[in-house]
């Protein structure tokens, strides 16, 4: 079976690991005959009699396929604080009490970026992974 991974970002797991780590994963995938298409999207899914037959990529390439798995990463929406002085980096910055740089404004959920005592890293709460070092 031929496996092709289509990724809109520049490398695999781009919201979780840095480019150097991703390149190691991509190399291992290639060693196992897994093709990875980066900076590519799917524009069309086609089939015959309700059976998947192919996908078309945004560069016009048609790929035969029998199985399609769709996954989408998310990026925190911080546009609502663009016109404020609330500090942000990968997420809204906060102290260990989830307090922003404003005394009575707190952050929580997938937009929160704070120091984690357990790992001693700055973390985005949406995935519990350190964003430092990402491209």
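Sequence proposed for the structure above (135 residues):
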């Amino acid at each position: 079976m031929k496996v092709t991974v289509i990724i809109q970002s520049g490398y695999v797991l781009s919201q979780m690991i840095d480019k150097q780590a991703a390149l190691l994963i991509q190399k291992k995938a290639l060693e196992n005959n897994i093709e990875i298409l980066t900076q590519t999207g799917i524009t069309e899914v086609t089939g015959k009699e309700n059976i998947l037959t192919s996908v078309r990529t945004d560069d016009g390439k048609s790929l035969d396929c029998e199985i399609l798995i769709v996954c989408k990463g998310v990026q925190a929406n911080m546009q609502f604080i663009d016109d404020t002085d609330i500090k942000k980096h990968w997420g809204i910055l906060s102290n260990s009490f989830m307090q922003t740089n404003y005394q009575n404004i707190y952050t929580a959920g997938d937009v929160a970026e704070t120091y984690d005592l357990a790992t001693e890293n700055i973390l985005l709460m949406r995935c519990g992974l350190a964003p430092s070092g990402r491209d």
